[in-house]
Amino acid sequence: MFKARTKPLILHAVGARPNFVKVAPVMDALDARADVEQLLVHTGQHYDRKMSDEMFSDLGLPQPDHYLGVGSGPHGAMTGRVLEHFEAILLERRPDAVVVPGDVNSTLACGLAAVKLGIPVAHIESGLRSGDWTMPEEINRVLTDQLSDLLFTHSPEAAEHLAAQGVAAERVHAVGNTMIDSLRRFTPLAAGRRLWEAHGLAPGAYVLVTLHRPSNVDALERLGPIVEQLCALAARHPVLFPIHPRTRARLQDAGLLAQLEASGVDCTGPVGYVDFLSLMFGAGAVLTDSGGVQEETTGLGVRCFTFRPSTERPVTITHGTNTLIGDDPAAIAQVRPAPRREPPEIAGWDGRAGERIADLLIDHLATDQPATADVLV
Hints:
By secondary structure, the chain is an alpha/beta fold. Helix content is 44%, strand content 16%. It has helices at residues 17-31, 53-59, 75-93, 105-116, 136-147, 156-164, 178-193, 214-217, 220-234, 245-254, 257-262, 273-282, 292-300, 315-318, 353-368; strands spanning 2-5, 9-14, 37-42, 66-67, 97-101, 121-124, 150-153, 172-174, 207-210, 239-242, 266-268, 285-288, 304-306, 322-324, 373-376. The chain is globular and about 60 Å long. The termini are close together.
C-alpha cells in the first residue's frame, strides 16, 4: 500500500557511539524546521547498553525507527549484514536522502546501499585522512567520500584531501564539527555531575584511559606490554579506565584484568555519553586510541595523549591539546596530568554546525529532489 508523502524524508543511519554524538545536532536542527520528516536507523554495531541505548537518552535522540541488530564480527561479515538489512529499509521507506556520520563499517555500508538505489548520500565528517591504510576507518572514510553527494567537512585540511582525490568542489561544504555542538550543549550538565568524586579522585589529578582498537587489544603480545605500562602509570598518577566491552573480553581472556586492578587502576565498565564527558572534564590527562576523544578533549581544553602512530585529526595537535605519542607502549610513560586550559578557537567549532548542515540538506532537497514521493507503508 502506498500513500503520498508531502514532505521530503531524511534518513539518518548510525551505528557506533561517536555517530550518535555527531548526528544529534543535525536532527535537532531539522526538527526545528517544518518542511522535512526524519527517520533514525540504528544498525546495532555498538550493542552494549552503555555504548548505545544510553546515548539516546543522554543526547535527547528519539528511539530508532528501525534497529538492525547486526552486532560485531569480522569487518566483511559486519559490512555485509548492514548492507543487506539497510537496503531492505531503504526499499520500504524510500527516503529522499541518507545521512551517514563518521567512518565505521555502518557508515560505508549504509552509504553504499543508498547510492546503489540512487538515493543521495550526505557524509558528516568528510575529508579526514590519516594516511594509514591499515586502519579500517581510513578505508571507510575514503570510499564513503567517493560515493557521497554532499560532503560536510569540519576542519580546513579536509577540503584539500578531497580535492587531491578528485572530489568536485561543489560537493564539499565546510560546516564545522557537530561533535563540538553536542559537547558545548552538554558540558555544563557533565561538569555539574562531578563524576570523578564518585571514584574518590581530585579534579585535574587523574589520567582517564580509553583503549579499544583491535590493533592495540586483540593480540596478547601487544596487549601485555600495554598493561605493564598502564600499571607503571598507576604507580605515578591515579588512573581511571572505563573499559570497552571488546577490550574487557581480551583482558579477561589473557588474565590481565586482575593485574591492572592489583596495580591500582580503577577499572570500570563503559559509561554513558554525559558521564564520560564528566570524567573527561575532570581529568588532568586522557590517554586514548580513539578519534573522537581527540576532538572532545580539544573542545574541553584537557590534555590528550593519543596512543597511535598517526591521526586523521591534525587540527587537534596544531590548534588543540592533543599529543601524538606513537604506538610503542613505552610512550605511555610520557603521560602526565596538567591543568585544563581555555579551549582553542577553531573555525566551525562554534556549536552551530548542525544548523548549517540542516540548511544545506534542505536546500539540496529543494533544488534536486521532487517535493513529494510515493512511499511503501
